[in-house]
Amino acid sequence: MATADQMIRLLLIIGLIFSCIDINAQIRYDSLDNSVKRMATKNRTSDTNYIRYYDEIAVHIYSTINISNFELGDQSTGYNIKYSPALSPSIGIGVSKYGLTLNLANDFGIVSQSNEKFGETQRLVAIGSLIYKKVALKLYLNWNKGFYISNQESYQSNWNENIYPQ
């Protein structure tokens, strides 16, 4: 059975291999394709030293680790409860064309913290970005299900550290 360190190394190697691969595909929808191309290249002056591929689709595979903690506090007692998801890398696929990028990643639980100790976390990450002339816009959506209380020791003195409350 592989240890967590071996699994992390394997994921890093696979991620490095996939990050070196460039996959291009081209789909022709004349009316939509031409209108988006006109919008992306309208009134652009370009440096002739650079080659631009606005009319090609770029597909990429990526990995991300999201840490989404939140904290609830009780002012009368002064206690704060901090909720955290179990850490696990999300692996996803992205598509780019004409300065528009859409990425979607899911948590497959390949390498994660112990489910017995921290509980099971399900995760979905969606990222969209648009780069147009002097404007850049990024939209980030992160959905998590399954949090554990990460600061249990701060308000419960007889707490067993083997299992976190979920």
Question: What do these coordinates show?
Answer:
The protein is α+β, with helices and mostly antiparallel strands. It has one domain. It is 19% helix and 37% strand. The protein has three helices and nine strands; from the N terminus they run H-E-H-E-E-E-E-E-H-E-E-E. It has helices at 4-19, 30-41, 115-118, and strands at 23-25, 57-64, 70-73, 80-85, 90-97, 100-107, 122-132, 135-145, 147-149. The strands form two sheets. Strands 1-2-5-6-7-8 form a six-stranded antiparallel sheet. A three-stranded antiparallel sheet has the order 3-4-9, with no helix packed on it. Strand 7 (122-132) and strand 8 form a beta hairpin. The longest helix has 16 residues, at 4-19.
Q: With helices defined by DSSP (H or I, 4 residues minimum), what is the helix count?
A: 3
Cross-sheet strand order for the largest sheet: 1-2-5-6-7-8
What is the typical, i.e. mean, pLDDT?
73
- C-alpha Rg (nearest Å): 22 Å
Relevant terms:
alpha+beta; 166 residues; 3-stranded antiparallel sheet
In short:
This protein has helices spanning 4-19, 30-41, 115-118, and strands spanning 23-25, 57-64, 70-73, 80-85, 90-97, 100-107, 122-132, 135-145, 147-149. The chain is α+β, with helices and mostly antiparallel strands and 166 residues long. It has a six-stranded antiparallel beta sheet.
Task: Chart the SSEs and their pairings.
Blueprint: H1 4-19, E1 23-25, H2 30-41, E2 57-64, E3 70-73, E4 80-85, E5 90-97, E6 100-107, H3 115-118, E7 122-132, E8 135-145, E9 147-149
Antiparallel strand pairs: 1-2, 2-5, 3-4, 4-9, 5-6, 6-7, 7-8
